[in-house]
Specification:
heterodimer; A: 448 residues; alpha+beta; 2 domains; 14-stranded mixed beta sheet; B: four-stranded antiparallel beta sheet; 7 helices; 10 strands; transmembrane (chain A); transmembrane transporter activity (chain A); membrane (chain A); transmembrane helix (chain A)
């Protein structure tokens, strides 16, 4: 018997009990829709979290924190940097030495206390650093300041209450409004000796200002100094990185940072695809590293577990619907027993009978999956529109614009349709087997 | 065409642990030649229907052999017997056994569908077969819209449609009035003569037995010798 004929045969049979078949389809559709909508919450939140992670951090960045040697982590040195630069797929390796105190920078009566650090400008430029104004330092006393440095440079004789607005920003009227490029600026560092604070001022010149950071919320008010300025600070404080020694803690500085090591080392990969390869290579060489890709992997793993759990819970709804299919198919077999008997008598193989009933339950399942998917898309859309409005009105807080509560990817549709079809065919299996075992003589005598 | 050798059959009655055996057929042996019409005659409960069911493969004998058209059908499994039935056997039942939700055309078409014939072939063959049984204008009627005689003609058309060499008929006139019975017997004779189809007819009616070339009589599950009524 050809498939087309089997299909026609099943269609005719289904037409005989339209209401019963429709109700069974509806139960399957609701089960399938429940499964999709439930799992779509997992997919939606997963997608939102990944997008959020990707937006907040550079995806090609790998932070290297140190190297494990004999059970302890060692700070990174020039030979490590050379090794990083030799790894294929690496675009740039930036390295910073951070001053262990925040110096005060002053221009006339404007001043700001902020972080100062050394950096390797050629590698920073390769990594994507751009200057909005000026040029890179050429002399030892030249510095580059962060894009937001000027906005923090404020009048020194104003009280803090008056100086800052509600957002903890310096009020515009107290901000430095002159041009910074070429300006002389003084950097004051301090050290405590014999319980007395001593200060040292280093005159510097601003040669450049960095471009605004990509992320709106991020502020760059750092000052990038030269190695010789760092050395001068170290000479004055007598400690590595200019650390201030407090009484009783004189020894803290020794061994914390070695003179030739770096505090912040960041590797920039050429593209996102090689980040994992580079991370793996670093791991093999005992470097402690972190990249957003590894964070995404963790997120993916957690959400895979969550999504699997939701799909399993959703499958229970489909299983409940399958009881309806089992019932419908059992009734169909009982009602059609005489017809099955006649068909067997004239030469229908048991396999053909079984296939007809399995096809019927499969068609109910398929129709249920199609209707269920359509319902799920409508519910998902409604959830994405209504839920943010409800939450915003209840909690009086604006939700992130990229947040999606429900998302239905095609993979979920295929998984749900697959589960739906499998469950419905399995639930039709026993009635179909019963149909093949119908006794021809009893069936023709209407005794089944 | 048919060879039955030392056929035995019994039914087990009662529940497990308290079963009794009812012997139905004992040592039945006979032959049916090609293009013959053979009537198997006997009273109710004589075992004639059981004999037909064994030849049809609806039940399996306890002992003995049945050969049809050179095939030992008693060795076939359920699936193979189903395929054999479809290609080699046609059936006419006492109460017609038509599927009530199908039209006369669809009932006749069913064996062709099961054999995997194309729609074009099916259409031509079904119309031709309905014409042979005089129902060319009744194809779209459901069984409930047809008379008993017409329903039995549909049943004959369904038995004929795959052109089998053998048709097994179980009390084919049992539900018909005498005039319709006469017409139906004429049709069977005509099909035998024109198409060379072998008929094995189970009946308790002498009128039906009379159209056969031979009659085999069964009493109490055993063959009664010398049952020839009419020979051509």
């Amino acid at each position: 018997m050809k498939f087309k004929d089997q299909f026609q045969f099943v269609r005719q049979n289904m037409k005989k009990n339209k209401v019963r078949v429709f109700m069974t389809m509806l139960a399957t559709a609701i089960g399938c829709a429940f499964l999709i909508v439930l799992a779509s919450v997992g997919f939606g939140l997963h997608d939102s979290l990944i997008q959020d992670t990707m937006q907040n951090r550079a995806v090609t960045e790998i932070q290297v924190h140190g190297k494990e040697t004999d059970g302890s982590y060692q700070a990174l040195k020039d030979e490590d940097i050379d090794y990083f630069e030799s790894i294929s797929g690496v675009r740039a390796v930036t390295r910073k030495k951070q001053l262990q105190q925040s110096p005060v920078f002053s221009i006339n009566d404007y001043q700001v206390q902020t972080m100062a650090m050394t950096t390797d400008f050629p590698s920073e430029m390769k990594a994507g650093l751009e200057l909005s104004k000026g040029k890179l330092p050429e002399k030892d006393n030249e510095i580059v300041v962060g894009h937001d440095f000027a906005s923090r440079l404020a009048k020194s004789n104003i009280s803090d209450e008056e100086l800052y607005n509600d957002q903890d920003q310096v009020k515009e009227k107290y901000q430095y409004d002159g041009d910074l490029i070429g300006k002389e600026i003084e950097m004051k560092v301090v050290q405590i000796e014999d319980n007395e604070e001593k200060s040292h001022t280093i005159p510097l010149t601003i040669s450049g200002i960095t471009e605004a950071p990509n992320r709106e919320w991020f502020q760059d008010q750092n000052v990038y100094i030269s190695e010789s300025v760092l050395k001068e600070v170290e000479q004055f404080t007598g400690t590595n990185r200019g650390m201030i020694t407090t009484p009783g803690q004189e020894d803290m500085s020794s061994g914390q940072q070695q003179e030739d090591s770096y505090d912040q080392v960041t590797i920039y990969a050429e593209n996102m695809e090689v980040v994992q390869e580079i991370s793996d290579e670093l791991k093999n060489k005992n470097y402690a590293s972190y990249s957003v890709v590894s964070e995404i992997q963790q997120i993916n793993m957690i959400f895979t577990i969550i999504k699997t759990g939701l799909i399993i819970v959703g499958t229970i709804a489909v299983l409940i619907a399958s009881i309806g299919i089992y019932n419908t198919m059992t009734m169909a077999v009982t009602e059609r027993a005489p017809d099955i008997g006649i068909m067997k008598a004239i030469g229908a193989k048991p396999k053909t009978i079984k296939r007809i009933f399995l096809l019927e339950s499969g068609m109910i399942g398929l129709a249920g999956a199609i209707i269920g998917t359509a319902i799920a898309f409508i519910v998902s859309m409604a959830v994405n529109i209504a839920l943010p409005l409800i939450l915003e009105s209840v909690f009086k807080e604006e939700l992130p614009p990229e947040l999606r509560f429900s998302m239905i990817p095609w993979s979920l549709v295929l998984i749900a349709a697959g589960i739906c079809l499998l469950v419905t065919v399995l639930s039709g299996l026993r009635p179909a087997r019963r149909a093949t075992q119908i006794d021809v003589l009893k069936a023709m005598r209407r005794e089944v | 065409m048919i060879t039955v050798k030392n056929l035995y059959h019994h039914f087990e009655l009662g529940k497990k642990g308290n079963k009794t055996t009812l012997s139905v057929l004992q040592d039945i042996s006979f032959q049916v030649k090609e293009k013959e019409i053979v009537a198997i005659k006997g009273r109710s409960g004589s075992g004639k229907s059981t004999l037909l069911h064994l030849i049809s493969g609806f039940i399996h004998p306890v002992k003995g052999e049945i050969w049809i058209d050179g095939t030992k059908v008693t060795d076939l499994n359920e699936t193979d017997f189903a395929a054999f039935r479809l290609q080699h056997l046609g059936f006419i039942f006492q109460n017609f056994q038509l599927i009530p939700s199908m039209t006369a055309y669809q009932n006749v078409e069913l064996p062709l569908i099961l054999s995997g014939a194309t729609q074009e072939k099916r259409k031509a063959v079904v119309q031709e077969t309905l014409r042979k049984v005089g129902l060319e204008n009744h194809g779209e009627h459901y069984p409930s819209e047809l008379s008993g005689g017409q329903q039995q003609r549909v049943s004959i058309a369904r038995a004929l449609v795959l052109n089998p060499p053998l048709i097994l008929a179980d009390e084919p006139t049992g539900s018909l009035d005498s005039e319709t019975e006469e017409n139906l017997l004429e049709l069977i004779q005509q099909l035998n003569e024109e198409m060379g189809i072998t008929f094995l007819i189970i009946t308790h009616d002498d009128q039906v037995a009379r159209i056969g070339n031979r009659t085999i009589e069964i009493a109490d599950g055993a063959l009664v010798e010398g049952g020839v009524i009419h020979e051509i």
